[in-house]
Amino acid sequence: MVFADQQIAFDNKINAATTLSCPFDDSAGMNFLQEFLQSINYGKYSTQRRPEAQAGKTRSLAKLSAESNAITWFEIPVSDIKRAKKFYETVLDIKLVTAKPEGGIEAMELFPRLPDMNMGRTDVVSGSLIKADRLHPAGDGILIYLNANPEIDKAISRIVPSGGKVILPKTKNPAGYVCIFEDTEGNKMGIYAGN
Question: Model confidence over 136-184: pLDDT tens digits?
Fold first, then answer.
């Protein structure tokens, strides 16, 4: 992990490098160098988000690729919206926001998201708890992993006391740690953390 002062020093070097004279004598070569330097600064090994994401600017949904999210939105079906809201707020230590139900939805609670922002974006994924006739809690089917960073152990410790059941205890995989659980509604869900 890059510490804040190291990141600032690195950013300053990147900024200086993009303003130095360049061995490329054409604009295409200079553009390549600038894109390359930005990819290092904001690439997959960086803990820093691109400036447009930091500022909350919309990055419209891009075609599915290695650099875009496969999931754009998720809905977790519930039978009891209040019980499910309390469960997820407790386990993940977050606050869900009540949304106005529309189009056959009886009740909806939104996971943390950017305010007043269309969530069809490449750089941000969110979702909701939803009570609707068209959806029913289930323990089979698609498995979604929710973000439990920075400490998956704390999230896991809150599952059973909140009314859930741990199905797969904390397990290391090449990307970090996962845990699979059953929520208060009977849905099988996962949580993930990098450390």
Answer: 999 888 899 999 988 899 999 999 999 999 999 999 988 889 999 999 9
Query: So what CATH class is 73-193?
Result: alpha beta
Q: What is the pTM of this model?
A: 0.64
φ and ψ at 41, to 5 degrees? -65, -40
Q: Is the dihedral of CA 102, 133, 99, 54 positive or negative?
A: negative
User: Which parts of the chain are beta strand (E)?
Assistant: 73-77, 97-99, 105-110, 126-132, 145-147, 165-173, 176-182, 188-193
- Domain boundaries defined on the chain: 4-48, 73-193
Strand (E) or helix (H) holding 83 = helix 81-92
Angle at 48 between CA 44 and CA 52, to 5 degrees: 100
